[in-house]
């Protein structure tokens, strides 16, 4: 699969995720689930930032080139934050539904749409990072 | 059988944690997920108290105090450098003026674990005093249950984070100067 097909496929996938979240707001005329988009867009950021910082860090003094097998404290903190953000994105519509602020269809659509957006970003990073370095562990 | 200088028959040092980097990162993710579950169950209780609550019992700041204690305890426990705890096994007497600050690390760690346990006990106390003693039914009782769920999740998150930070990769070595 060449990169152009990947980009087209992933963008269509991403658009369907956004469409689901927007429909969950617009069909019920209740724009509270729109926060889910924000949470799931922020969720991949900590890992990206940590990996960028760790890969650009000068490792001359400590000859630790094993970034993949020996994560630093910053990377673990970012993994922790990633876990909290994913659960926050899923549990925000559940809390809204439990408190009768949104309908059940709105809850399901916003959860599925948010997960689609998140998975899409992860697959995007994974597709284009495995071409540069042949590592098989995917950071999500 | 060779003579062992253990106190008990079962030697817990033989029980080794599985050493894998995947498992370690999975544990860190799981700890974050558990913490978020606890946090959102508390948020759920307070939003529920504000919106569809039909009773006169509401979530106030008192209900949040156990969660705050647990969170501070978790931060203390997991931000301690663990090599400080074990650096002088010989001079194990408390407040030994010898090398290292192991006793300070132990005191702070004890403080953190007491905050965690105090948070869990405080959630049970809020549940009993505020909800069970007034003999309320279940939709209102759920706010107290979510308080317990919240603090238990924070405690399990702390335990899993502690365990997964102790997983060392067997084949990783760093040549630090």
Automatic annotation (TrEMBL), chain A:
- Report the transmembrane regions from the record: 6-27, 34-53, 80-99, 106-128
> What InterPro entries does this protein's entry cite?
Vps55/LEPROT (IPR007262)
Q: Which domain of life does the UniProt lineage start with?
A: Eukaryota
Keywords, A to Z, come to: Membrane, Transmembrane, Transmembrane helix
Q: Which family does it belong to?
A: Belongs to the OB-RGRP/VPS55 family.
What membrane topology is annotated for this entry? Multi-pass membrane protein
Name this polypeptide is given: Vacuolar protein sorting 55
Q: Which GO terms describe its cellular component?
A: Vps55/Vps68 complex
- One annotated GO biological process: late endosome to vacuole transport via multivesicular body sorting pathway
Q: Among its keywords, does the record have Transmembrane helix?
A: yes
Per UniProt, subcellular location reads as: Membrane
UniProtKB/TrEMBL annotation, chain B:
Task: State where it is primarily located.
Answer: membrane
Tell me where it resides.
Answer: Membrane
For this UniProt entry, which residues form the secretion signal? Answer: none
Q: Which domain of life is it from?
A: Eukaryota
Its keywords, alphabetically, are:
Membrane, Transmembrane, Transmembrane helix
Instruction: Kindly list the residue ranges recorded as spanning the membrane.
Output: 26-43, 103-129, 141-163
Annotated Gene Ontology cellular components are: membrane
Annotated membrane topology is: Multi-pass membrane protein
Q: Which family does it belong to?
A: Belongs to the UPF0220 family.
PANTHER family the UniProt entry points to: SMALL MEMBRANE PROTEIN-RELATED
Instruction: State what protein this is by name.
Output: Uncharacterized protein
């Amino acid at each position: 699969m060449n990169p152009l097909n990947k980009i087209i496929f992933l963008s269509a996938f991403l658009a369907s995720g956004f469409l689901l979240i927007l429909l969950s707001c617009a069909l019920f005329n209740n724009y509270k689930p729109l926060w889910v988009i924000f949470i799931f867009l922020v969720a991949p950021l900590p890992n990206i930032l940590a990996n960028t910082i760790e890969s650009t860090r000068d490792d001359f003094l400590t000859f630790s080139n094993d970034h993949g097998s020996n994560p630093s404290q910053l990377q673990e903190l970012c993994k922790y934050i990633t876990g909290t953000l994913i659960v926050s994105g899923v549990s925000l519509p559940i809390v809204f539904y439990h408190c009768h602020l949104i309908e059940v269809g709105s809850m399901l659509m916003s959860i599925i749409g948010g997960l689609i957006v998140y998975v899409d970003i992860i697959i995007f990073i994974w597709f284009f990072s495995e071409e540069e370095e042949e590592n098989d562990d995917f950071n999500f | 059988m060779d003579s062992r200088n253990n106190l008990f028959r079962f030697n817990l040092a033989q029980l080794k944690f599985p050493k894998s980097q995947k498992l370690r990162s999975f544990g860190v993710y799981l700890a974050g997920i558990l913490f978020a579950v606890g946090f959102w169950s508390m948020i759920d209780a307070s939003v529920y108290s504000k919106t569809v609550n039909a009773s006169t019992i509401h979530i106030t700041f008192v209900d949040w105090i156990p969660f705050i204690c647990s969170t501070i305890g978790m931060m203390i426990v997991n931000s301690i450098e663990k090599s400080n705890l074990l650096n002088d096994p010989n001079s194990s007497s408390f407040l030994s003026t010898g090398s290292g600050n192991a006793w300070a690390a132990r005191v702070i760690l004890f403080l953190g674990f007491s905050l965690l346990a105090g948070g869990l006990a405080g959630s049970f106390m809020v549940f009993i005093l505020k909800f069970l003693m007034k003999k309320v039914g279940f939709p209102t009782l759920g706010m107290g249950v979510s308080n317990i769920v919240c603090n238990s999740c924070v405690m399990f998150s702390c335990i899993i984070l502690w365990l997964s930070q102790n997983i060392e990769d067997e084949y990783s070595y760093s040549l630090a100067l």
